[in-house]
Amino acid sequence: MRIDLYIGESKISINKDEPIELNSSVANINDITKNTTDYTQTFTIPANDINNPIFKHYYDADIDNSFDARTKVAGRIELDGVPFKFGKWKLEKVNVKQNKPSNYTIAFTGNLVSLKSKFKDDELSGLDLTALNHAYNSSNVQGGLTNSLFSGSIIYNLFAKKQYYYNNNATDNVNTPTLANIAWGGGSGVGVLWSDLKPSIRLIKIIEAIETKYNVTF
After folding, report:
1. Segments forming the whole domain that contains residue 131
2. What's the average pLDDT block by block, 10 residues per block, for the chain (218 residues)?
């Protein structure tokens, strides 16, 4: 099997006798802290007429605008001429012998990053859900309770923080700070106060907002 390494569109010259170990993991949907990416252990490539121009003779401190080893550079790994993994290369160091470059030490990281690292300590309040903004009034609450708002993206339900609601019959006239019968019995003091209800967002809208913010696809 032929392995070809590319930094950008430049093919890297490799040592045929040095193994390249690629670690690949399958995403764990139950624990995002275990979602890691493909990566290689560091390995060396020769400092020759092919690789020196790619790394802009990084070993020579007298050259301006040399290779920036602080950042990763896009590239790929091909197997028998077919793209296998896309990611980024990192120049770890240059090994110099007798004042001449001997080889470069590099490592590869896949494009998938750990979701834990990507999300960090972000909270749902940081998502852009402004498209679902609406006036909090009795008309919208009633519409969200009896039907929905934004084509089903927003609903209002009877999960109130103050009271537990139930619907029994009009004669069971219970109305306490924690319990209320909302069966219609006429008169005042029955039903639900619209200001006690809060909206709920469909889960798919939260997932879509996460995809947009972090440029990921679930």
Report:
1. 124-214
2. 88 84 61 61 89 81 71 89 88 86 87 72 92 96 95 90 71 70 64 85 95 85
- Is the whole-model pTM more than 0.70? no
Q: How many CA atoms lie within 13 A of 159 on its CB side?
A: 6
d(CA 80, CA 51): 21
Which of 63, 82, 115 terminates a domain? The answer is: 115
Cα dist from 55 to 46, 98, 137, whole Å: 11, 20, 63
> What is the reported pLDDT for 187?
58
Whole-angstrom distance, CA of residue 163 vs CA of residue 101: 76
Is the Cβ–Cβ distance between 9 and 35 less than 8 Å? no
Three-state DSSP class for 51?
A: helix
Decide which of 92, 115, 138 is a domain's last residue: 115
Same domain membership, residue 162 and residue 82: no
The predicted pLDDT at position 184 comes to 66
Tally of structural domains, the chain: 2
